[in-house]
Amino acid sequence: MASLSAQVPRRRWIIGGLLGGGVLVNYIDRINLSVAAPQLMAEFHLTPTDIGLLFSAFFWSYALLTIPAGMILDRFGVTSVGRWGAFLWSIASAAVAFASGFGGIFMARLLLGAAEAPCFPANAKATGYWFPRQERSVATSLFDAAAKFANVIGVPLGAFVVVNFGWRWGFGVTAALSFSYFVAYYCIYRDPSADKNLSREEHAYILDGGATPEGESASSAGSMLVYLLRQRKVWGLSLGFAAYGYTFYLFLTWLPGYLVQAMHMSILESAGYAAIPWACATVSDIVFGGLLVDRLIAAGHDETKVRKTVLVVGMLFGLSVFNATQTTDPRWAIFWISIALSGLAASAPIGWSIPSLIAPKGGTATIGGIMNFLNNMMGVIAPIVTGLIVGATHHFEAAFLVAGVMLLFGIFSYVVVLGRIEPIPSPA
């Protein structure tokens, strides 16, 4: 199969790179607030609890709209919904730059969350269309790793702009990046059946490899949602991924602040240190969550065992977050956080590949929406809980312990509740 893959054209990898580029911009949009937080606290006299609320504002609308976004995607398709989403999130990102206080920033972040809600379910659906099963993990890791790599380049870039030009310019730069992605997506993305640049040979290779069939389900969007909510596999996947999301979003929003407050670093110094765990996570995402998994499956190993082993082992490595509570040395803290995020990064693309592997026809984005809803509710909860804990205790140890307990719950969901990774029967 590997030799056959090398002989066919590679239009699908251009699409995979495009989806990854969108997530890269998407996450730079999300993390710029964490870089600007110290300046916002000083300018608008905000408390740690206020900052926690601002961090979570994005996820309120994002999480609440992920299930409707998945249903809309399954009804109207990736192409049109993806275009509108990319355009609206560039507008929302620009709106933050013109905000005049807590309320304006909060509303702009709510709008950004609504605009970006279709992104990951759309990518999961598009990856199912464009890639055979034996390439699905690598393809998924391209866009999932971009979420981690955004912190490698986004935090230093944001810190440079914020320190030298002010926080408003930081949001202006991300708005320009977002609009550039909208133009690229508008010009390039089509579903395989509508892409004139996709050769017949490559299209046949994708279909023969078990690509998700294009088209709508015979059931209505509401009926499909109700049906999927009754499926044990959907709950096992979604609860396990939500546990991953709690720790991921804790570090996504609070890592720069943790380094400034607990390790007494400057904004620029914290940006350099914060990039290290995210760089490690990017490599782990692609190498272990992508290449290793697809190689093992291509070699004939049981698909369920391979994917679930990487899921669970990655989550176990995530428990290294416990060790970060035992040190006051920033170098050791970054070491343990790097181990934790690398483990979680290896498990993440497996999680995102599963909706297209278990969904009945026309249900991939709906499963992705359910999974993303619970995952991003952790984006609401984790920043607020962390802010409350830090505000009450003036340190991060208890906040990191909470994240570790969540990971143990996620391991249970993946091992016991998810079951075999195989298609759910279509509703009658």
TrEMBL record:
Domain of life, source organism: Bacteria
Major localization listed first in the record, in broad terms: membrane
Record field: transmembrane: 12-31, 51-73, 85-108, 169-188, 234-255, 275-297, 309-326, 332-352, 373-392, 398-418
Listed InterPro entries: MFS (IPR011701), MFS_dom (IPR020846), MFS_Na/Anion_cotransporter (IPR050382), MFS_trans_sf (IPR036259)
Topology term for the membrane: Multi-pass membrane protein
Keyword Membrane set for record: yes
Subcellular localization: Membrane
PROSITE patterns: MFS
SUPFAM superfamilies: MFS general substrate transporter
Domain Major facilitator superfamily (MFS) profile: 15-422
UniProt keyword list: Membrane, Transmembrane, Transmembrane helix
One Pfam family hit: MFS_1
Keyword hit for Membrane: yes
PANTHER family, alphabetized: FI19708P1-RELATED, SOLUTE CARRIER FAMILY 17
Annotated protein name in UniProt: MFS transporter
Organism: Acetobacter sacchari
